[in-house]
Task: inverse folding
């Protein structure tokens, strides 16, 4: 079942690249006591994600944070090394790049995407959410290909 507005973010663990290498972050570490805008992409380095989705958040990071967001997080069902390299290649140093390597958190959200037709396996749907202290206040899931309802510009307008 897909999470809805008003639901608490499910408990889970994601990975990010720390100064000493990969580190675990619990959903409490990410969301507790904060206002977070998290967006998810089907895959790092894929065309729509690299050319449109992530760049919108990189360019608008200052505006998003000025509108009251504590953390902008980008998540994909990729490993932490890929997410780190992708973030560096896109100048996303102001974003928290999160790896859901096995797709467990994505499954807990109910937002899986079957990318097997493209050789990707199970991935995340393209979506964006805003959560306050771990409770989802906005959830925008793309209804098909493209970047519209989960874009940085759309989410910024909700703040």
Result:
């Amino acid at each position: 079942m897909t999470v809805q507005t008003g639901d608490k973010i499910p408990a889970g663990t994601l990975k990010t690249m720390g100064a000493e290498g990969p580190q675990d972050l619990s959903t409490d570490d990410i969301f507790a006591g904060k206002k977070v805008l998290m967006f998810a992409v089907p895959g790092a380095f894929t065309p729509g994600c690299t050319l449109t989705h992530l760049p919108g958040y990189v360019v608008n990071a200052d505006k998003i944070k000025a509108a009251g967001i504590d953390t902008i997080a980008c998540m994909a069902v990729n490993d932490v090394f890929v997410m780190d390299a992708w973030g560096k290649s896109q100048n996303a140093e102001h974003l928290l790049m999160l790896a859901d390597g096995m797709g467990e958190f994505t499954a807990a959200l109910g937002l899986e995407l079957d990318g097997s037709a493209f050789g990707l396996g199970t991935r995340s749907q393209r979506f964006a959410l805003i959560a306050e202290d771990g409770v989802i206040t906005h959830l925008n899931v793309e209804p098909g290909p493209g970047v519209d309802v989960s874009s940085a510009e759309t989410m910024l307008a909700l703040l």
Notes: The helical segments are 27-31, 47-66, 80-89, 104-109, 152-158. The two ends are 26 Å apart (CA to CA). The chain has a mean pLDDT of 95. The first helix runs from residue 27 to 31.
